[in-house]
Amino acid sequence: MIPTFGPILLQFEGPGAELAFLAGRLAFGLVVAFMGLNHLLNVDDMAGYGQAKGLPAARFMVVASGVTLVLGGLGVATGVFPTLAAGAVAAFLVVATPTFHDFWAVPEDRKQAEMTDFLKNVTMLGAALVFLALSNTAWPYALGIGL
User: What phi and psi values does residue 80 have, to the nearest 5 degrees?
Assistant: First the structure.
């Protein structure tokens, strides 16, 4: 492989590749945005959970993370500021996953649910990192607004 020092130029080739990438962006981005909306619609419950996990300024952090997830998810789905959008979602998941889904430190009756949520978040982190890695390429069917 030849090393490059500039933006990666990726071609979406093959039958349906552009539509598959769009479908992946929409699935990921809209689920992330929905998660953020859930934060904003359930601030009290989410803040209580955050306080139980030792989150400082839990109410503020729930609102801030909700806004981050809504904007990040919509950014990935639409291709608007894709580097910031995917990076913000990845940063949220890096912090939230071990903090809130610490299956190794919960009572036995909560272990399976926390492990499931932990693994879901790790999977979503992987997708966010892929979108971040591809954020310097031209995304098909994207609004193309960015830095």
Answer: -95, 125
| pLDDT 10s digits, 67-114 | 999 999 999 999 999 999 999 999 999 999 999 999 999 999 999 999
R_g of the chain, CA atoms, integer Å = 17
User: Hey, what amino acid is at 31?
Assistant: V
How many Cα atoms sit within 13 Å of 72 on the Cβ side? 30
Report residue 55 as tokens: 């989150």
pTM: 0.89
CB 73 within 8 A of CB 40: no
C-alpha distance from residue 87 to each of 16, 73, 110, 126 (Å): 26, 11, 30, 12
Bridge partners, residue 145, by sequence: 80
| Nearby residues of 141 by Cβ (< 8 Å), 6 or more positions away | 18, 19, 22, 79
Question: Please, which residues have CB within 8 angstroms of residue 85's CB and are 6 or more apart in sequence?
Answer: 29, 71, 72, 73, 74, 75, 76, 131
Which phi-psi region, left, alpha or beta, contains residue 133 (left: φ > 0; alpha: ψ -120 to 50)? alpha
| CA 96 to chain CA centroid, nearest Å | 11
